[in-house]
């Protein structure tokens, strides 16, 4: 018998605890990096109902989730998958449950897997990827001004594309189950219930419409599990999308509102927990369509949750195009807070070059390059409040501002880098920094040292130094500044704020014309 180790399994699995169900997909990675689906299971689980009705996940739901997970692990073992090839994700609304940490711990104990919580930034990235694929399939949507809305269980996201590139993004506290539970106790007929629901969502819908009132909109795409699940009932799909008129959507919504839960389940072939969100989802999308004056909505073909899970399995958030979209979104935040755009861009360019050429020193994952670039773009947003201690104001602003495409942890890292872009070093008792692990603190030290250097190179905010070249000489890092003979101002800035670089990397920095 051969003593050679068994070849690694090419099959992988994703388990996703969603708003209304718990799902499993198993598949094989292809050579192209895509994912060939072998198995897809989905079982109802009333997570959203518990959270928005009670503020906590009930014990019965916890036990139900544990039971489903045990069944799914049996399926995983039947395929011969090791646990190392299985990932467990949870819906972003889970963080709103008072007992979400207890719930996550129970999932981890049941499965032996680390239960990962998708946050708002992750969900936004996934919605962006789904929308982008739809634009690629449909030239008329890609080449025009396309507004994409995603009505989720707890939040609504809006993305605006101009000729296939993201131009604007926003997030609102309005969701299907959040709205449903807000009017769940209202008495009356179905028509009255729809009226109560529309009244409840009107404020956010008006706010959203106002935010995009200055944008030309040729097409409106509606993304979401509920509306995608019923779109085939209303129209045939063409080029990966359904086109549904506002009138068709209105009539269909009113018909479904007349059905009791049993009738809805039978008509749409959905489970009860999933069926609960369909009418609120359609009504919310309808309210948006009316407010924008849309003749029709475009809806992607396919199962939203399954696509989301496949993206979790295969998509890389660090492609060059996606990074550019994230940085552009950060620039828009900078405009909002009236930062010096030329300075911010210049610092970001230097920071990126330093990160790449000093990789042998910092040994950080490439994902931190994006974090550093965003921090460079936004390091001075605190000036909007006051130049005095603006680094602290930057920390506060960025902790409270969602940045397109970044997770909560990445955004906190950006905020901390803005906090430490000046000469003040991180201290163990500092807000937010004290919550980090030892490894995360080290990342902050390394990136802050680079950001300070990049910022010092444009100390005058005049972009005098256009390009730089790096060279080491003993214990010194020489930064060559072609075309600039006198770098006294920048060298003084480096001497005053780059002690951290010397402590972290062991090099003194000297500017020279080369």
UniProtKB/TrEMBL annotation:
- The UniProt record lists the Ppx/GppA phosphatase N-terminal domain at 32-297
Q: Which InterPro entries match?
A: ATPase_NBD, GppA/Ppx_hydrolase, Ppx_GppA_C, Ppx_GppA_N
List, in alphabetical order, the Gene Ontology terms for molecular function in this entry: pyrophosphatase activity
User: What name is this protein filed under?
Assistant: Exopolyphosphatase/guanosine-5'-triphosphate, 3'-diphosphate pyrophosphatase
Q: What is the lineage of its organism?
A: Bacteria, Pseudomonadati, Verrucomicrobiota, Verrucomicrobiia, Verrucomicrobiales
Instruction: Provide the Ppx/GppA phosphatase C-terminal domain boundaries.
Output: 332-472
Q: Which organism is it from?
A: Prosthecobacter fusiformis
Q: Where is the signal peptide?
A: none
